[in-house]
Amino acid sequence: MVSRGALRAHLLAARLAGPVATSREESLRSYRLFAARDPRVMLGLDPEWAWGERDLIALMADKCGVSGDPGHVSGPDVIDPERTLSGLDAFAERLGDAAGRQAPVLFGTGHPHRLLGFYAELADALSAAGCPVLTPAQGRCVDITTRFGVRTYHLDYVRRVALVREPGAEDLAHHAGVHTHSPLPIRVALDGLAEAGGPLPALVVGDHGWVCGAGQLGFDAIGLADTDDPALFVGEAEGRVSVTVPLDDAVRSDYYRPLTRYVINRACLSQ
């Protein structure tokens, strides 16, 4: 069992919270792009409200603990570890509720090299509690616009966590998948479920476009987000994302293991 105090210390030591690797410059750039509704940072969300750059700074100060001063324009960004812990508590509550109902759940990540293990252990715990962990549309093509043009990827699953891979990489055990912000993979997965006539997810768990794309379509969605991913926090503020946990989403994969144990314990699941 990981105590709240021990996890708080770990968050700071691993730079999951406190001063993080994401710079203030990166975050402010994302806020400017979001205010301009640039699809690269919208992650599939279509906000109902108007969000200017100052609105986003105020929101992120409230949700993450970053500086609320628009004049603060450089240096490392900061996440309040207490906000991370509160987010993890709410995240665990949602998982525990899904387990209690034995509800179908879908996991997906745009950060497979960092967060795959975190989600996979939660998927194992929910499966052991009787939740169907969905893996629809495996192998389907997903055409994603990148800075190099439209590229075709394949939807795949590793330990029941959805991700996208380069064509031909499915047979490479060391190739965990590619980093993506796109909401298209969750749309392909949900289309596959609808075509198959199977159960739709009662909960979508993940990050980036997996969460915002699902929330935009009306699905209960929870996830993790860094200070330069305002879309999830806007989605939460507007009621389309149920829980967003503020943390650095790109540290070493083993640094997330104490978070997994904490969440599983809080959700009263077996590891």
Report on the structure:
By secondary structure, the chain is of the alpha/beta class. It has one domain. The protein contains 10 helices and 9 strands. The chain has helices spanning 4-13, 24-35, 39-42, 53-63, 81-101, 112-128, 184-196, 208-216, 230-237, 257-266, and strands at residues 18-23, 76-79, 105-108, 141-146, 149-158, 161-165, 203-207, 221-225, 243-246. The chain has a 7-stranded mixed sheet. Strands 1-2 form a two-stranded antiparallel sheet. A hairpin with a 2-residue loop joins strand 4 (141-146) and strand 5. The longest helix has 21 residues, at 81-101. The radius of gyration is 18 Å and the shape is globular. This is Phosphatase.
> Biggest sheet: strands, sense, closure?
7 strands, mixed
Tally the helices: what do you get?
10
The portion of residues forming beta strands comes to: 15-25%
Structural class assignment = alpha/beta
Q: First CA to last CA: what distance?
A: 11 Å
Percent of residues in helical segments? 40-55%
Number of domains: 1
List the secondary-structure elements in sequence, H or E: HEHHHEHEHEEEHEHEHEH
| Spatial strand order of the main sheet | 4-5-6-3-7-8-9
What is the mean pLDDT? 95
Instruction: Give the assembly state of these chains.
Output: single chain
Evaluate the radius of gyration.
18 Å
Tell how many strands the DSSP assignment holds.
9
Low-confidence stretches: none
Tell me, briefly, the overall form: globular
Organism: Streptomyces formicae
Protein name: Phosphatase
Describe, in short, the structure shown.
Helix content is about 40%, strand content about 20%.
